[in-house]
């Protein structure tokens, strides 16, 4: 399904001559963080934030507050992952969509875009999740793929889930195999295992030895 099929048009953009009071009333009825605004010629201007609107004089036109309009949007050809990033960068739950001639087409809802992510194989295919850590200049996704596939694993997805102090953590979804051999190979390639799996025999072995040592010291 094309992402453009998720474009919604049930709320039309307000014009700059509309009253702030009308915007306030609409925001009271909706859970949207922003509402798109056009000028009198139908040109898209941007979106206005709910919190700002409730601070304005209700009898004033929107044109008195154009300075507060936020200029964010995506194209109807923008990939869904970039659309999701645009939502995050602008702290909004509604994203205006323009065509290549800057015509306003409608908007995306955040929940619809998130649902596409949750339907990806990374989430719904069976498999194990592994989080590994390495220096930001020392890891590569090609190396990660090689480690997984050399152990007959199926790489369902990988992304950088944390980056701090020149160290990155990579979350990996792996199908078709147990994780133990893959975990051991990551260790041989100097990756730290942040979150492993119940099949991690290395961790289990260390735990057993620790338990044995505790019992010995308590004798």
Please state how the strands of the largest beta sheet are arranged side by side: 8-9-7-10
- The outline comes out as elongated
Structural class: alpha+beta
- Gyration radius from CA atoms, angstroms: 25 Å
Run of helices and strands: EHEEHEHEEHHEHEEHEH
Please give the number of β-strands.
Answer: 10
Helix content: 25-40%
Give the oligomeric state.
Answer: single chain
Largest sheet, in brief, is:
4 strands, antiparallel
Note the total helix count. Answer: 8
Query: What share of the residues does DSSP label as strand, in percent?
Result: 25-35%
Terminal-residue CA separation: 66 Å
Which residues sit in consecutive blocks of at least 5 with pLDDT less than 50?
Answer: 198-203
- Report the average pLDDT across residues: 87
Overall description:
There is one protein chain. The chain is of the alpha+beta class. The chain has 8 helices and 10 strands. It has a 4-stranded antiparallel sheet. The protein has a 3-stranded mixed sheet with strand order 1-2-3. A 3-stranded mixed sheet has the order 4-5-6. 21% of the residues are buried.
Summarize this entry quickly.
This protein is of the alpha+beta class and 219 residues long. The protein is built from 8 helices and 10 strands.
């Amino acid at each position: 399904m094309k992402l453009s099929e998720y474009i919604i048009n049930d709320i039309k953009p307000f014009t700059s001559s509309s009253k702030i009071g009308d915007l306030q009333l609409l925001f009271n009825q909706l859970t949207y963080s922003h509402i798109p605004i056009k000028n009198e010629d139908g040109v898209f201007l941007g979106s206005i934030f709910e919190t700002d609107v409730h601070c304005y004089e209700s009898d004033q036109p929107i044109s008195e507050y154009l300075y507060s309009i936020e200029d964010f949007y995506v194209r109807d050809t923008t990939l869904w992952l970039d659309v999701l990033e645009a939502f995050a960068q602008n702290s909004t739950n509604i994203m205006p969509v323009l065509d290549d001639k800057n015509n306003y087409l409608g908007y995306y809802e955040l929940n619809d875009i998130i649902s596409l992510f949750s339907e990806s194989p990374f989430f719904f295919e069976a498999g194990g999740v592994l989080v590994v850590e390495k220096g930001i200049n020392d890891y590569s996704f090609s190396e990660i793929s090689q480690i997984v596939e050399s152990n007959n694993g199926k790489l369902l997805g990988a992304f950088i889930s944390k980056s701090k102090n020149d160290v990155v953590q990579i979350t990996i979804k792996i199908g078709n195999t147990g994780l133990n051999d893959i975990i051991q190979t990551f260790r041989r390639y100097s990756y730290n295992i942040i979150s492993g799996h119940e099949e991690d025999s290395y961790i289990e072995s260390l735990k057993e030895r620790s338990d044995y040592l505790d019992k010995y010291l308590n004798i």
